Amino acid sequence: MSLENKTAVVTGAASGIGRASALRLAQDGADVAVIDLNETGLEETRQLIRGTGRSCLAVQADLLDRDSISATFEEIANNLGPVDILHNNAGGPARGRTRSFPNATLEQWDEVLTLNLRSVADCTREVIGGMKERRYGRIITTASEQAFRGGPGFTDYSAAKAGILGFTRSLALEIARYNVTVNAICPGVIKTGITDNMPEEHINASLASIPMGRMGEPEEIAHAVSFFASPGASYVTGTYLLVAGGRTLH
Asked: Annotated catalytic residue: which of 136, 157, 178, 240?
């Protein structure tokens, strides 16, 4: 469905799900601002979006830093105008590593909760006022199947992703009357740079737990983002969509 004359923002867009989602939103007709710390990957994403004929602004930013977030959204407003669609996608375990709960430091917990949960609130806060004023908006956040399954070494990450679901439901109730929808997507095991570097035994164990017998592709998450961003999802708010190949059915 067409997103012409809409402006979208995607965080964590230098690769994987974020890149696929940003590209899909551009293909749907939106102009897109992409945010990440990875400058090289961000530029690659920008070039792909430019290839669709849509405008793209790439901003290198640290989502652990509130001042950086504020400056980033000011730059987006100055260059692309008001934000209609926000995809809060950035996240992950602390420095890409997992640790058992007794061995996880307070610093690790702070980092994981800040990146995966607080940054979602901080980015949303930057756009929510304008969305309410214009009585239009789409807020879409990448949660995780870990919000339901949990897993050894993922206590901090799972807690943050479960927090996203609570945030999504509560905010949806607050702003439904302004025609602003708030939804979440819960990916399962998706083929990204992280899975490419996983030991073979971990990959095999993951595949064995997925009823469909394969990992998902970033583009399959992007389809879900496209739906929640579309006019066709105008009556859908406060919910989540599991995209996990049936893994959570066990």
From this structure: 157
> What is the predicted pLDDT for the residue at 30?
98
Q: How many CB atoms lie within 10 A of CB 147?
A: 22
Burial class (CB in 10 A: 0-12, 13-18, 19+), 29: middle
Domain ranges in the chain are 7-241
Beta strands in 145-197 (DSSP E): 180-187
| Superfamily of 7-241 according to CATH | NAD(P)-binding Rossmann-like Domain (3.40.50.720)
Q: What is the pLDDT of residues 160-191, one digit of tens each?
A: 999 999 999 999 999 999 999 999 999 999 99
Is 240 known to be catalytic? no
User: Is residue 90 scored above 80 in pLDDT?
Assistant: yes
DSSP 138-151: EEEEE--THHHH--
Q: Give the model's pLDDT for residue 1.
A: 57
Retrieve residue 21's tokens: 């989602």
- Crossing angle of helices 155-175 and 106-113, rounded to 10°: 30
| Distance in angstroms (rounded) separating the CA atoms of residues 60 and 38 | 7
Residue 143: closest CA among 115, 168, 164: 164
The pair of structure tokens assigned to 6 is 């809409």
Model pTM?
Answer: 0.94
Q: State which amino acid sits at residue 130.
A: G
Task: Spell out a b/e string for 60-93, using b for 16 or more CB atoms within 10 Å of the CB, else e.
Answer: bbebbeeebbeebbeebbeebeebbbbbbbbbbb
